[in-house]
TrEMBL record:
InterPro entries named among the record's database cross-references: WD40/YVTN_repeat-like_dom_sf (IPR015943), WD40_repeat_dom_sf (IPR036322)
Name the record gives this protein: Uncharacterized protein C4G3.03
Length: 218
């Protein structure tokens, strides 16, 4: 596992900025169980600065890359994760047979369900918040996004697509959503004040298949 610290260097009279990576290699076993899905190493919340949550087999660990200390986050969740996500005080993992686990990062609360009758692969996870309500969006290999309430994991809505959905990102204000999948289409949705998802536009990406797209405000 490699963590990159960056240093910015600017020329005095030219607005050019260069980033010089200084990688630090940490001897940690992070297991990957799908040759394409690698979204399995995530930062923890603000309460645990300098920590990462990493999977090793079916166990999940907290690793402090400043102190080198490692501790169990969850023991034997029952499957090796294909994807993980964290946000709003929660952590979630998905598996290759529709497995889905949610945990409160500040308590012992934990719940596990199966997301689809066909045991489809969970390709990606994304937390979002709208009107004070936290949601978990699950991108599935059966060409759908399933939206669950948090922390109960009650199914709120299912969005159907024409190909497998690999990743979903939601803007920090919870009002825009972007999806990518097993074709070159990038789809932008508006999230209404009632929590419905309305397609705004479809754009063509450069690659035939996309696996990741991030949204942020500066």
């Amino acid at each position: 596992m490699t963590i990159i610290d960056t240093t910015c260097v600017s020329r005095s009279d030219i607005l050019n900025t260069f980033v010089i990576p200084k990688p630090v290699v940490h001897d940690q076993k992070v297991t990957i169980h799908h040759w394409q899905l690698r979204d399995v190493l995530i930062p923890n919340d603000e309460q645990h600065k300098h920590e990462l949550i990493v999977p090793t087999g079916q166990d999940i660990f907290r690793y402090n890359y400043k102190t080198g200390q490692k501790s169990y986050f969850l023991k034997d969740i029952g499957y090796p994760p294909t994807c993980m996500a964290s946000g709003y005080g929660y952590w979630a993992a998905g598996g290759q047979k529709g497995d889905l686990t949610l945990k409160d990062t500040t308590s012992d609360y934990q719940v596990s369900i199966t997301t689809a009758p066909g045991f489809t692969i969970n390709n990606g996870l994304c937390f979002s918040q709208l009107n004070g309500e936290v949601r978990l969006l699950v991108s599935n290999n059966d060409a759908s996004i399933r939206i669950y309430s948090v922390p109960d994991l009650d199914l709120i809505d299912t969005l159907d697509f024409r190909t497998a959905v690999n990743h979903t990102s939601v803007s920090p204000d919870g009002r825009k959503m972007i999806t990518v999948g097993d074709d070159n289409r990038v789809q932008l949705f508006h999230v209404t004040s009632l929590g419905h998802y309305e397609l705004v536009t479809t754009m063509a990406g450069k690659n035939d298949i996309s696996f990741l797209f991030l949204m942020s405000y500066y």
